[in-house]
Amino acid sequence: MESRKITIRSKRSNLALKVIPGHFATRNSHINYYLDITTIRARQSEAKAAASILVQDYSRDIVIDTIVCLDGTEIIGAFLAEKLSEQGFYTKNYHHSTYIITPEVDQLGQWFFRENMLPMLKNKNILLLMASVTTGITIKQSIECISFYGGNLQGISSVFSTLDQYHGLPIYHIFSKQDIPDYHTYSRHDCPYCQREQPLEALVNAFGYSEIK
Predict the structure, then answer these.
(1) Paired strand residues for 8
(2) Contact yes or no for 55/86 (Cβ under 8 A)
(3) What is the pLDDT of residues 160-201, one digit of tens each?
(4) Which member of 49, 72, 141, 165 has the greatest number of CB atoms within 10 A?
(5) In terms of Cα–Cα distance, which of 85, 88, 77, 36 is closest to 54?
(6) CA 75 to CA 17: how far, in whole Å?
(7) Are 63 and 123 in contact (CB under 8 A)?
(8) How far apart are CA 128 and CA 91, in angstroms?
(9) What's this model's pTM, rounded to 2 decimal places?
């Protein structure tokens, strides 16, 4: 798989996204590219560069109190909070500092926050930060979770997204289908690779891949 890796440069900076073509399964769908966001999430310089791009999309009248980070994007989230503060974005938090939090997941796949985290959610203005958006299923689950705890979703940002908006709310992203024109996502029942009996190569998520031997 690694020998097929392709590097795609952002049109807005020198930030690089590495992708591998093939037949892969996520939790919600089958896809024909694995997106390796590892270094963007984990390397200081790349996480900072990603935050610098994402902050450009927000108008100054937006209020962000808390950033809810999914897919291991906490480092990007911390830099994004810093950029928001540097550029004068308003937060209602009395200490004038943004919370960066992530939900836990139970054995049934349900997201939850513990009691000590609730003050960071209830009546707070939330920015949702993700590694990738493909079907919108994860956004739906995120909105339900944030609403349950009394948060008000104000924005969605993602490193990669096939969608530009979700139910009228813009999804700001660094990479999109314009960068990978032949990127496709399929339901398990409609996957053309499965119909051709082409084996799955790996199970993938934002954290990496596990090859199927």
Answers:
(1) 17
(2) no
(3) 999 999 988 999 999 999 999 999 999 989 999 999 999 999
(4) 49
(5) 77
(6) 17
(7) no
(8) 15
(9) 0.92
